[in-house]
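note to self: the first set is below, dont mix up w the second
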Amino acid sequence: MTRIPRADAVHNRQHIVTIARAAFADQGIELPVREIAERAGLGAATVYRHFPTRADLVAAALAEHVAECRTEMRAALADPDAWRALSGTIRRFAVHQLGDGRLNEALFGSHAMSAQFAEDYRAQAKGLDQLVERARQAGAIRSGLTARDVRAGLTAIASLRVLRPGTAAHSASRLVNLLLAGMSA
């Protein structure tokens, strides 16, 4: 017999994941569970009831982040305007790099959690390849531009995470605009 979770339990679980995601993005995934519980306005026991281990909580926060990126990529691939799809993806990438920096470090670094999302990473890479190819076929980007070139630009954007938040946001905006101007046909 399967128990249907109470509405407040479902709400608490989502609230915990939302708070954890923001906290991990800001301060890293090593943040203690008691800190997450405090930020969520809940007791640590409530957090542990939903997530028996800290790794479970980290995995849930990362899964939500990955799901959002997956949804954004699907929307970009469905966009009939090839340039808007590619340029929007690059702009969203910059936003995620600056706003979710520590989550991205866990996903793309050497952290043990990253292996759980390897297939998602490959799917995102394939999606970017498709966006670049569509933009090339539509004549929206320079003819010699490759997905590898775009990835080099994305790496430059990601490197801005080490700057102070205000400086990083300004620099990222300028870098994205320069990248897009250099890519466009």
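second set (the one i keep forgetting abt)
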Amino acid sequence: MSKPARIVFLNGVGSVGKSSIAKALQTLTTETFLLVAMDSFLEMLPLPMQDHPDTFLYETLEEDGHPSVEIKTGPVGERVMKGMRHAIAALAAQGNNLIVDEVMMASDWSEYARLLEGFDVVKVGVFAPLDVIEARERQRGDRLIGTSRRQYDRLHRGMRYDLEVDTSRATALECARAIQERFRL
């Protein structure tokens, strides 16, 4: 019998560096790991549905004098996210090792835990100070300014990680190496 698929979750706010770590990690692993990015699922939506009450509605608020983007998920958005979680489980069930680039709250983990029971799953929290993340968010030019601020204090609350990395103190490659070495990937 073949060994179960290995799944590495990279969880952190937007612009913290998860995608860069994931791509670097793919170059280091001894086995093949597919990259499953939440953004890829969001990009499947038609353009008119990118900021829509049925999918994901982005509302810019003010928090401590700064923009803070609250994301409200509608019924189609819920189906997209549920479909992503089930797609990840389906890929793993076929023996595919995965690196999952996710923005996940503790409440989102319960469905993953149920779907991925029996697989070798590790959760990595990806962190950096808010000012560093906001600077990256502005530099990227493809993010709503304030998204990371809204997620920053909320995202990791209640989450337990097998490893935490700080992208302000280490490069994406160094973070990937720490993950690869820690979990013998």
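remember for set 2: The mean pLDDT is 93.
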